[in-house]
Amino acid sequence: FASARPPITHLVDLIAPIKPRHYSIASSARMHPGSVHLCVVTVHWPTSRGPRAGQCTRFLDALNIGDAVTVSVKPSVMKLPPLDAQPVIMAGLGTGMAPFRAFIEERAMRKLEGVNVGPMTLYFGSRHRAMEYLYGEEFEAYHADGLLTNLRLAFSRDQKDKVYIQHKMRDDAELLADGLLANDGCFYLCGPTWPASDVKDAMVHAFTSHGGVKPTEASKVIEELKESDRYILEVY
């Protein structure tokens, strides 16, 4: 109504607060004391009214070195296993790579301290190697050094037939069964929700073909791993 003249403070009260954005820490506190690294992709998309940008990523992209930012640190399900010698199997898509960089850096520091660290396998997926191989040079160096035991890359658009991390995992069925079932390893998946079911299917194939698990028991085994914090998903 033209006669309505609500005060601006009333209109502001009607707007819901902006939801916090949660980003995985992409660095080890031991390797980078006093700082926290994030892996963030700026979000852009076209609309009928022109290009739009993600609210938080646009804000972060516009910051200058030295600008103050209000943040909080929350507990995460992404934690290294309690024993340094336990195998770690990581699967990350895009910026879902962030916590695994922290994992690898943390074990690199422990190795420098003389600790015997277990094998680490990394599955990384994105569309194009040339544009989206996040921390690629670092991972290649860790792989050459032997800290990163296995580095499996899936760049889905770099060849005619699309290749995803679940395909690489299926090829490594024996490695997965050995790491998780025979050696009490831990598995982590971080990134979009969509590959979770295909990744589970790859695990079922590994357990049934090389782990001595009956097909009817495979899902139960995975649930038991989840309950013991050895099959951890952080998907969104």
Describe this protein's structure.
The chain has 236 residues and is an alpha/beta fold. The chain has helices at 8-14, 55-61, 98-112, 129-132, 136-145, 165-171, 173-182, 196-210, 218-227, and strands spanning 44-47, 50-53, 88-93, 120-126, 150-155, 186-191, 231-235. The strands form two sheets. Strands 5-4-3-6-7 form a five-stranded parallel sheet, with helices on both faces. It has a two-stranded antiparallel sheet with strand order 1-2. A hairpin with a 2-residue loop joins β1 (44-47) and β2. α6 packs parallel to α8 and α7 packs across α8. It starts with 7 loop residues before the first helix and ends with a strand.
Tertiary shape: globular
Spatial arrangement of strands, main beta sheet: 5-4-3-6-7
Identify the quaternary structure here: single chain
Number of helices: 9
Rounded average pLDDT: 96
- Helix percent band: 25-40%
Beta strands, count: 7
Q: For the terminal residues, how far apart are their CA atoms?
A: 42 Å
Report the radius of gyration as a whole number of Å: 21 Å
Strand content of the residues, in percent?
A: 15-25%
Q: What is the H-and-E element order?
A: HEEHEHEHHEHHEHHE
- Structural class call reads alpha/beta
Main β sheet profile: 5 strands, parallel
The low-confidence runs, each spanning 5 or more residues with pLDDT under 50, are none
